[in-house]
Amino acid sequence: MGSIYGKIFRISTFGESHGAGIGVVIDGCPAGVTFDSDFVQKELSRRKPGQSRITTQRKEGDEFEVLSGVFEGKTTGTPIALFIRNEDQRSKDYAHIADRFRPSHADFTYEEKYGIRDYRGGGRSSARETAARVAAGALAKLMLAELGVSVSAFVSQVGAIKVVKPYQELDWSQIEENPVRCADPEVAQQMFDYIDQVRKNGDSVGGVVFCVAKGVPAGWGEPVFDKLHAELGKAMLSINAVKGFEYGSGFDGVSMLGSAHNDLFYKDESGVIHTRTNRSGGIQGGISNGEDIYFRVAFKPVATIMQDQESLNKAGETVIVSGKGRHDPCVVPRAVPIVEAMAALVLADFYLRNKSSKLSRD
Amino acid sequence: MGSIYGKIFRISTFGESHGAGIGVVIDGCPAGVTFDSDFVQKELSRRKPGQSRITTQRKEGDEFEVLSGVFEGKTTGTPIALFIRNEDQRSKDYAHIADRFRPSHADFTYEEKYGIRDYRGGGRSSARETAARVAAGALAKLMLAELGVSVSAFVSQVGAIKVVKPYQELDWSQIEENPVRCADPEVAQQMFDYIDQVRKNGDSVGGVVFCVAKGVPAGWGEPVFDKLHAELGKAMLSINAVKGFEYGSGFDGVSMLGSAHNDLFYKDESGVIHTRTNRSGGIQGGISNGEDIYFRVAFKPVATIMQDQESLNKAGETVIVSGKGRHDPCVVPRAVPIVEAMAALVLADFYLRNKSSKLSRD
Amino acid sequence: MGSIYGKIFRISTFGESHGAGIGVVIDGCPAGVTFDSDFVQKELSRRKPGQSRITTQRKEGDEFEVLSGVFEGKTTGTPIALFIRNEDQRSKDYAHIADRFRPSHADFTYEEKYGIRDYRGGGRSSARETAARVAAGALAKLMLAELGVSVSAFVSQVGAIKVVKPYQELDWSQIEENPVRCADPEVAQQMFDYIDQVRKNGDSVGGVVFCVAKGVPAGWGEPVFDKLHAELGKAMLSINAVKGFEYGSGFDGVSMLGSAHNDLFYKDESGVIHTRTNRSGGIQGGISNGEDIYFRVAFKPVATIMQDQESLNKAGETVIVSGKGRHDPCVVPRAVPIVEAMAALVLADFYLRNKSSKLSRD
Amino acid sequence: MGSIYGKIFRISTFGESHGAGIGVVIDGCPAGVTFDSDFVQKELSRRKPGQSRITTQRKEGDEFEVLSGVFEGKTTGTPIALFIRNEDQRSKDYAHIADRFRPSHADFTYEEKYGIRDYRGGGRSSARETAARVAAGALAKLMLAELGVSVSAFVSQVGAIKVVKPYQELDWSQIEENPVRCADPEVAQQMFDYIDQVRKNGDSVGGVVFCVAKGVPAGWGEPVFDKLHAELGKAMLSINAVKGFEYGSGFDGVSMLGSAHNDLFYKDESGVIHTRTNRSGGIQGGISNGEDIYFRVAFKPVATIMQDQESLNKAGETVIVSGKGRHDPCVVPRAVPIVEAMAALVLADFYLRNKSSKLSRD
């Protein structure tokens, strides 16, 4: 009962790792958005497995089909259904975990909650579910682009290795040039080497994705509960393996004094109001203020490791769980397009919601 | 359009700092919950101003009235409306900011979004709005208590001063014994002194609230979007001044290896399944697993300071904004009951949502 | 869990017949609507008891208070709370039904559903609850008026006495001139005499309210589930005592042939597209087409009668229920403003929803 | 923005008449419902075209595929996606109406609302959309059956030809025995002959579907807005071509006196509370009372007729629209399973919502 998201631009996702496929229905996308199939496919490719030796070696084409809602290349205002049929399923890889609870996975909690569980590849709890988010997010990005809004992310930390430069000084064109999707090429190489080492040890490691939205005008966000950053936080925390979210000054802002933290307003040469600093992360009182919106998302190390771990089976007996199949030693390189997609979905929704803020005669 | 929260246990809040009052309507509370007025009043008192010299000196009785939904001491299943009439309003204190944008406040963004703004005390963006959350949260706590679930929080950081002991080793009975609401009395004193110093400087400082929910059974949370921690994150981020949220291992988990991070299952003497560690924060795959749920919430330094700051007015002219009125130098002591209230509201909602997980004949 | 209505222009109502009062919170009203208190009070007066000898003789001033959301005479985009404190409660009038199930009332079903029941005056199931709808609807009317949309209703049937003239030929200024609120003065007199006779017999009778919305532009309504007439139907059926809803040709359309029923399009002199007939009731495919929207709402005879009736008490014993207190022999005269209010709320919501139909750059 | 329906048992439908297909995602179905594919297919077959010479001659297999949510024959608590791929599309049949507004269709209003329109077969406004409702409704029926609740409907009127017997006296096993789906075989023959005559004249005619739900326990329905009959009304009115809804005594109840209309309570031999009559239609105060729930749904004559009609094209020029393609002269025989499906969906949702009415320790 939690697979529908958004208030106006609403997505309803479905699908399991080893079922027929993964899909999404988007209800509430305005009519007239140019549906660029190539772009949607490209976004899916950024998320798909098998991109380099530090990502899982599963081969999934992740080709999508439009089932409804697009006519002569445009959205029609009716629901848009996108579907990605599953391929290369090796369900038998999972027979050994059918009655076992893998540590720090969702096996135990799904069993407790539903009393039944599609154990193949994690079923619905598999990160494969995020393909639907990326497809829907690609459409949201297309709509936002027509409004001059863009969303971009990169890997800013892997294990203890961090990008230290401010995001404004990075060369964003570098992100897709390295398999880690880090905007700083030197740090990217260190991250790659570290992940590769972790992989060889049959282990996994976490990371941080940094995301920036540019071009968002002042006014998006709906206090007091649906503040823009609150909804961004929920969207990010809903992604598999995410453990934390912070925007603007974030947790570091805690130890600052107000006199140093406040963002002072000024007017630039062209008469536009800006803030001299942006510790607010582009959001004040839950509403965008026209500055860059930026935030960080923390991902834990992937729970599946190629090492033996003690656990329990459904009968409550102690068993050994051994990692099999093909898994990512570090999830963040493939998480970059997912973070962007969820951010785009949140922004698309708030763009539409904001249309009702003031009385207008149209 | 964002003042309604929750799916089944739904709250609808209203009110401004200097209007008639602050209130909340709760639709979806089950019938039969004993409504303990004294408890609700006590919770409101924990949030109200004027508790010590490190909180604002405004005097607000914050006495509430039940407008509906309670009959002979029990909830009836119909909407429960609670109202707190405003007192001690000094609206004229705010005349000087009627046309000015206070730095890092919501003045500018409300003006941009709505084209009109109740500037008195921040209007709807005032932290006074949280009184309604605390009142509704008190009712949620009462319901949860009947289910054996409790929610408690304390201040774990102010500026750079942190509680370092694990939460399990703290004496929680100490929390209400000091004005900072820190569970470690020694650290509490350091925090108090620091906040007092900051106050004398006319400045402000941030902090962290640490929250634990005990007794939540396995099964609460609704993947894939309404994961328990995602909704907790949204609820916390919707509180004024919050900049970040993390649960379980949080941002620190990023730099751990999977082999060290995974929580191993075991069965205790009474046959109950537990995990040996709890880096999952009591939530796996977005669903509670029966362990303690714990998380941290980062609050920025309060934007209102008793120092002159440069800013703009509505006409776009440079002006000086001077802090007046009565304000908190550090928001976290009074934020403790707010964090608890929002957590209780989220849990109450998921308790009810979880009733639909499995087919049952009742 | 059903006291919140609307998607964008959302109302959350609360209150019981003999509690503190009746109220409503409106979340999602745009900023900038002029709040005309006199108009809201006038609408409440049209609904209030004691208007003539054919309505209940209860005296209720039904004066409302604005608790939030209005500043300097305008809505601010934040929640608007309106509250009507109860007066003239004679709760002891109801002691005799505390443990009895009145025939065709909600006593039995509330008891079954909630296990507890505020029996005083019907509690939440009292028609007094509709005061909140009228208050919120008045605000919706004010907003719609600024868009050139009006909603008006009249009593078109009482018992078997019907208005036979087409609504276009009636003098709508007559509606408020007679206590029945019938647009045809002659029929109004017959209705009045009949209701008065029914009243003297201690009985009750049903009726039909006919409602027309003018000025609604083409485009309002959200297929496939939230069709404009589907939502109007739900809104009307949610009013106490309503048993049926039909729009346009309604049930009579069933026996027509398609060739006679279809509304042919044409262009008028000013180039505007119209239909020559309007059996569609201004709605095609669930979306307004620019013609008048009209519909009929059937009300059953009021369940409370001044006659003895056999029933059961909570213990399952046969008892006699005798009507006491002050009740309406026919509900439709006072239902006119309620029907209008609910229609206005539905239209206000669809106006806002329609803003997201097409991509626009604003 | 209106293709998602339900609060807990939520369906999200998609698809157009001549796109890839028609589908539905069900989010909120409890885990553990036995998914009987044959039953779902059988329900779809009751709705599909080509059943007799009085229904459209289009040939559609309407075979469905399960895309997600079912594992080893049971629902898993995760979203269930069902898809029916379109076949036998003759899109070129529709080229002639690409720029024309067919009278009493949704062509004009979709064009006005969205600015773009998939004209092939009516696109999203085609009755083909209801296949998704029937598929989802079949699942709801399966769940309800496990709770002892059934939903059945039949055609009670075609043009002016009506079934006059009370529904309790009809032989329901006759319904599927005749192509009209009328429970009275003699009336069924008259209806068939009449529809056939209308068909030969290239015309169409309306009808009424009568529906009964049995076995619904007391307690389902959520006042004050989401009353059981209000939601049933909305669900029915959302079906293509529906013009009216009434339950229990309906519009006829208007002219009754309260003393004759009230349903008196009594206790049967086994101690169960019943009402002697059932003018309430099984619903009091918006909540089921344990009696049969019954209602009537009015369908207008189908707008597509095989006769020339004057209309306008997008350029505003007068044109002649001629019916082509394959259409139903009377929609009600195929509407029977759609009415049942929507009723089942409403009941399934209220069953789940009612779980939160009272505090319980489970």
Automatic annotation (TrEMBL), chains A, B, C, D:
<keyword id="KW-0285">Flavoprotein</keyword>
<keyword id="KW-0288">FMN</keyword>
<keyword id="KW-0456">Lyase</keyword>
<feature type="binding site">
    <location>
        <position position="326"/>
    </location>
    <ligand>
        <name>FMN</name>
    </ligand>
</feature>
<feature type="binding site">
    <location>
        <position position="53"/>
    </location>
    <ligand>
        <name>NADP(+)</name>
    </ligand>
</feature>
<comment type="subunit">
    <text>Homotetramer.</text>
</comment>
<keyword id="KW-0521">NADP</keyword>
<dbReference type="Pfam" id="PF01264">
    <property type="entry name" value="Chorismate_synt"/>
</dbReference>
<feature type="binding site">
    <location>
        <begin position="300"/>
        <end position="304"/>
    </location>
    <ligand>
        <name>FMN</name>
    </ligand>
</feature>
<keyword id="KW-0274">FAD</keyword>
<keyword id="KW-0057">Aromatic amino acid biosynthesis</keyword>
<protein>
    <recommendedName>
        <fullName>Chorismate synthase</fullName>
        <ecNumber>4.2.3.5</ecNumber>
    </recommendedName>
</protein>
<feature type="binding site">
    <location>
        <begin position="240"/>
        <end position="241"/>
    </location>
    <ligand>
        <name>FMN</name>
    </ligand>
</feature>
<comment type="function">
    <text>This reaction introduces a second double bond into the aromatic ring system.</text>
</comment>
<keyword id="KW-0028">Amino-acid biosynthesis</keyword>
<dbReference type="InterPro" id="IPR000453">
    <property type="entry name" value="Chorismate_synth"/>
</dbReference>
<feature type="binding site">
    <location>
        <position position="47"/>
    </location>
    <ligand>
        <name>NADP(+)</name>
    </ligand>
</feature>
<dbReference type="InterPro" id="IPR020541">
    <property type="entry name" value="Chorismate_synthase_CS"/>
</dbReference>
<comment type="pathway">
    <text>Metabolic intermediate biosynthesis; chorismate biosynthesis; chorismate from D-erythrose 4-phosphate and phosphoenolpyruvate: step 7/7.</text>
</comment>
<dbReference type="InterPro" id="IPR035904">
    <property type="entry name" value="Chorismate_synth_AroC_sf"/>
</dbReference>
<feature type="binding site">
    <location>
        <begin position="124"/>
        <end position="126"/>
    </location>
    <ligand>
        <name>FMN</name>
    </ligand>
</feature>
<comment type="similarity">
    <text>Belongs to the chorismate synthase family.</text>
</comment>
<feature type="binding site">
    <location>
        <position position="285"/>
    </location>
    <ligand>
        <name>FMN</name>
    </ligand>
</feature>
